[in-house]
Amino acid sequence: MPKTVPANLNGFILKKRREKERQWSVVAGPISFELSSAKSYENLGLTNETLLSFREEIDSLFQSGKLKQIDNSKLVSELQDSEKLQEFKFGISINYNVARAAGLGCDDSDVQMGIAYEYGLFLMINQKEQSRPVATFRLVGGEKFFFNRIYDFNVRLFTNKRNVQLLWRADQQTLNLFAHRGFNVYRRNGDEWIKINPTPVIQRNPDGFYSVYDSSASPTEVNEYSIRLISFFNFEDSENFFKYDPNEIIETYEKPEILQIIGNLSYDQGILLNFKIAESVQRHIDRFEIWRALPPGPFTKIGVISDPNTYSYNDKGPLIPKEYYAYRIKAVYKDQTEISSDEVMFYYLPKIVPPRPKNLRATVRTQNMRTFITLEWEKGNQQDTITQEFYIYASHPLSNDLRWINFEEAIRETRFVYEVPMDQGATYRFCVSSLGKYMYESEPSDTITVKVASKVLPVPIIKRWEVDSNTAMIYWEYPDVSDLKGFRIYRDGMLIITENDLSADRRSFYTGPMRYFSQYRFEIEAISHDGMASMRSVPVEIVTEKKKKQVSSN
C-alpha cells in the first residue's frame, strides 16, 4: 500500500480469485472513500442482520459527534498530511466499523473451506478503476496455522505492579505468510485462561513491539500469559507461554532530568548538556542515550554514555547557529526498559559578538514646525561581516533614561532620523549598538548629547498676587524648559522687565512702589535663548490702596 493517500482517490474495489486463476471477480465495490451519515453501505457485503446493527452503531457515532462528516475531496486533501494520516490510521484501527464507514473495509461471505484465494485491492482514481491492484494478500478458507516466532517478551509497569504493559516482537517475515487478524492475549487464572485484550492486537510501536495492557495482574505472584495468533476465521494457534514475575520488576522507573544546556561557547566547543537521574535507580541503569532533533524533524540518536555514573555530554555537532534544537536523554535500564527525559528546546547561539559602532554624530534640522535629529555612525571595523542591524538608544526629557527606540524597525544602514517628540526645548542623549547574526549585541557606542531648541513655548500662568498698600508680589507657574532664558513683565502693555533681569528659574516678581489708589494690568511672557517668545499670560488687574496687605488669586 502507498504510504500517502493518492490525489483524486474516490474509492476502492475489492476483488479475489482462486489461486493460479487469472480472472478477478468483484467481492465488493465500488466503495466510496468518505464519511457521511447519508452514505449507503449496501455494497460492503454485509448480511441483513449485520448491516442493521452496523448502521445503528455508525448513526449513534454521528449523532454523538464522535464521528463527523467529511466528503471525499476534503478527506483526501487532509490525509496528504502525514500526521493526520497517522491519526486516521490509529482511529480506524481501534474500531473496524469506523473503517467500514469510511470505505476502508468490507465482508466476503462467499469463502469456501480449504480453497486458497488471492485478494486484490483496486483504487478508483478520478472515478476510473485502476488496472492493477495496489495491494494483494492470500488466505485459505478456514485456514488454521501454527505460529511460535514470538520473542523479546517483557513487562513494564503502567501505574503499579498490578497495572502493567505487556510487550513482544514477532518474526514479521514468517507472520506475513499467514492471513491473520492479530493477536489475542490471555492470563491464567487457576485452570482458566482470561482474555485481556478487547480487540485483536495488530499495531506495532516504532520499536517494532506489539503491546497490550493488563490492569488485573497479580502484584505478588508470578503471572502466566499466552499469546495466540488469530486467523481470518477466528482460529487461534498454539499457546505461546510467557511469565511476569512482579518481584523482579522495579517499582518506579525514574526518568533523567536535563539540568543545564550551555550553548554560548565558541563554535568549536559545541553544546554542553548536564543531567541527572534519581539515586534510587542508578544501579539499574545500563546506559544513557543522547537524542537530538532539529524541529520539525525527528529525533536522532547522537551519542551513548556507557558509564552510568557520567551525567554530562558534549554535543560537537555538526550544529547550525541560530536554530532551535530539542534534546532528550534516554535512560536504558538493565531490563531494557527505556525512559526519556522531558524534551528541552534550546536556541543555539555561539558566542560571536559584533564590534561596537564608532564615531556617532548628530545634526538637527527643523521643517514644517517639526524637528528632526539625524544620527550617523560607522561600523566598528571595515571587515565586519557579523553585524546585521543596529539598535538605537535615546533618552526622553522626562526620564533621561536611555531606551531602545527602534524595536518596530530594523536599522541596517549607519544612519537614523529621530523626530523630536516635544515642542519644548530639551537635551537628548543617544548611543548605538550592533546586533550580530547570532543575536549577540555589542557594547554601545559612545553616548552623545544633543540640545534642541523649543518650537513653541508654553504660556505662563499667573496663579496669585499679593497687594501691600502700593506694592505687589506676583506668582506664576511654568514648566522646566531647557532653552528658557527668562521672562518679560508688561505693565499696562509696556515692557518694564526683560529676560536679562528675570531669569529662567524665577517664578515671582516684586513690582516696587506704585501710585496709591491706582489700577494696573500685568502680563508675563517667556523668552528662549534664541529669542522665541511665548504668548503673553492672561492679564491680571491689581489695585493699590493705602491699606494693609491683601491676597488675591485666579
General description of the model:
- The chain is 9% helix and 42% strand.
- The protein is mainly β.
- It folds into 5 domains: 9-140, no CATH class; 150-248, Immunoglobulins (Immunoglobulin-like); 257-348, Immunoglobulin-like, CATH 2.60.40.10; 358-452, Sandwich (Immunoglobulin-like), CATH 2.60.40; 461-553, Immunoglobulins (Immunoglobulin-like), CATH 2.60.40.
- The mean pLDDT is 86.
What brief labels describe this structure?
554 residues, Immunoglobulin-like, FN3_dom, 9% helix, 35 strands, Ig-like_fold, five-stranded antiparallel beta sheet, mainly beta, 5 domains
> What would you report as the Rg, rounded to the nearest angstrom?
43 Å
Q: What is the end-to-end distance?
A: 93 Å
**Overall strand count:** 35
Mean pLDDT score = 86
Outline:
elongated
| Beta-strand share of residues | 35-45%
Q: Describe the sheet with the most strands.
A: 5 strands, antiparallel
Number of helices: 5
Describe this structure in a few short sentences.
The chain has 554 residues and is mainly beta. Helix content is 9%, strand content 42%.
SSE diagram, text form:
Blueprint lengths: L8 E10 L6 E8 L15 H17 L7 H7 L3 H13 L1 H7 L13 E10 L2 E2 L5 E6 L9 E8 L6 E7 L1 H4 L4 E10 L2 E4 L14 E5 L8 E9 L8 E5 L12 E6 L8 E6 L8 E9 L6 E6 L6 E4 L7 E11 L4 E3 L3 E5 L9 E10 L2 E9 L8 E9 L6 E3 L10 E5 L6 E11 L11 E5 L8 E8 L2 E7 L6 E8 L2 E4 L10 E3 L8 E10 L11 E4 L6 E4 L1
Antiparallel strand pairs: 1-2, 1-3, 3-4, 3-5, 6-7, 7-10, 8-9, 8-11, 11-12, 13-14, 14-17, 15-16, 15-18, 18-19, 18-20, 21-22, 22-25, 23-24, 23-26, 26-27, 28-29, 28-35, 29-32, 30-31, 30-33, 33-34
Helix pairs in contact: 3-4
